[in-house]
């Protein structure tokens, strides 16, 4: 595996992303929306009920989980364009005829979905954490962020979930013929995360539960990687992909 | 440059390519002719190490087909123009070539020089910064050819390079192929355009899953000499054709404009009989000739002879 070859493909695909307004809108709109929208909600909640310092942190922590949900959703859109889009426009065959291995192409396409998603979510979370701290420091009496829970969420769970979404997109891409179908199927990945989100509002997200979650995602990632590398095989793509 | 022995590809029960053996020398332009589904694209994909072979052996540009270690080295040395050009439509012509040049590890200075040389050769240099989606089909085809050449390959695989092009664009592409030929590049040309093969190729192979024949266009034509008599009349009619058919039982007679096209086996014996039949039916003969068969005649005869009886 030559990383330079994979990075050439990733850079090229990321350049192509700039021409896709829908993807750009998602990459900018989602983190900015979560980064501004939820702090606005926190501001509203601060004025509600007694002693917000006792119950509000659970909600704030749960709101931060939306960046993980974003990391599951956005790469499916990017990966679908970069794999099914190329399949539809027939540009995969010339790419496959270059001196690159299947793994290098797969990693390149994965990076093109992974890097912008993770960077966008991290940027949005900086905005979110800064505003929440400004709003709550007076009430809580301490800076809520940064904390270990958010650190594990952003630097461990979020990348693993993004990876899972990309691998699932590769597998789905081998069975569908258009970008929209690929996105629709891949977007189902966020359903279990929504369940986690709803549960977290009740039981609270802790560093320990997030570490368990990361372990599960890590195992699923490894399984999906072995499946996707089998699916993304030169001969398979040229002769069997629909 | 290419040596194949019994190269075979099966997809389940379907045999796509059946035991092809051929040798193609350096600097040769080899045309691969065959109807749709004959196995032309599958053969190119095997020779370009894009798909595996089921059996047989092949060596391309010094690399053994099917040997994982040789696959990357082989792809570094060849250029491939697939049937669908597959360009990045939203990117500029320059960016399309630059991306592929980087994947082939062409150093920056050489890459810039190659891109400029190729785009000028294809008459696209002035449009290098325009998005490919604004290009005509012919321009896209030329750009895809430039992409296949950006790393200066020793061997070019071209899969139907003029399919779906209007006659002017097709001629442009053919002229470029003739330029490549002057540069002594080895070219493997998949086509079902017989005129193109006749004009451009040193040798052609006719494929219908199996390789039916290989030879230069003139060699192939000479194998089938004297198979058709053409009678040019003052005015041809179905009545005259029917009279010839009645006389020349089991011979195929067609009317084409004011000409009768008649399949014959022994022209010396049959032509006088044809002339008698035409005159007896009231036809006025202007010319009776025995043109050599075209590559098309050879192709059609071979393909029909080898067609599955079912």
Strand percentage of chain B, roughly? 25-35%
Global shape of chain A: elongated
What are the segments of chain A in which pLDDT stays under 50 over at least 5 consecutive residues?
none
Q: What integer value in Å does the Rg of chain B equal?
A: 24 Å
Counted by DSSP, the helix tally of chain B is 11
Count of runs of 4 or more consecutive helical residues of chain A: 11
Low-confidence stretches of chain B: none
Quote the average pLDDT of chain B.
87
Query: Gap between N and C termini of chain B, in Å?
Result: 38 Å
Strand content of chain A: under 5%
What does this protein look like?
The complex is a heterodimer of chains A (242) and B (310). By secondary structure, chain A is mainly α. Chain A has one domain (3-240). Chain A is built from eleven helices and no strands. In chain A, helix 2 (21-46) packs antiparallel against helix 3 (52-64) and helix 3 runs antiparallel to helix 6 (102-140). The two termini of chain A are 27 Å apart. Chain B is α/β, with parallel strands linked by helices and 310 residues long. Chain B has eleven helices and 14 strands. Chain B has helices at 40-47, 68-77, 93-103, 108-121, 137-149, 167-182, 194-200, 217-223, 238-247, 267-280, 295-305; strands at residues 2-11, 14-24, 29-33, 55-60, 63-64, 78-81, 155-159, 186-191, 203-208, 210-215, 228-233, 253-256, 259-263, 285-289. In chain B, strands 6-7-8-3-9-10 form a six-stranded mixed β-sheet, with helices on both faces. In chain B, helix 3 crosses helix 4, helix 5 (137-149) runs parallel beside helix 6 and helix 9 (238-247) packs across helix 10. The longest helix of chain B has 16 residues, at 167-182. Chain B starts with a strand and ends in a 5-residue tail after the last helix. The A-B interface holds A 5, 8-9, 12, 15-16, 19, 86, 89-101, 234-235, 238-239 and B 11, 45, 48, 50-52, 72-73, 75-76, 78, 80, 82, 84-91, 95, 99-100, 102-105, 144, 147.
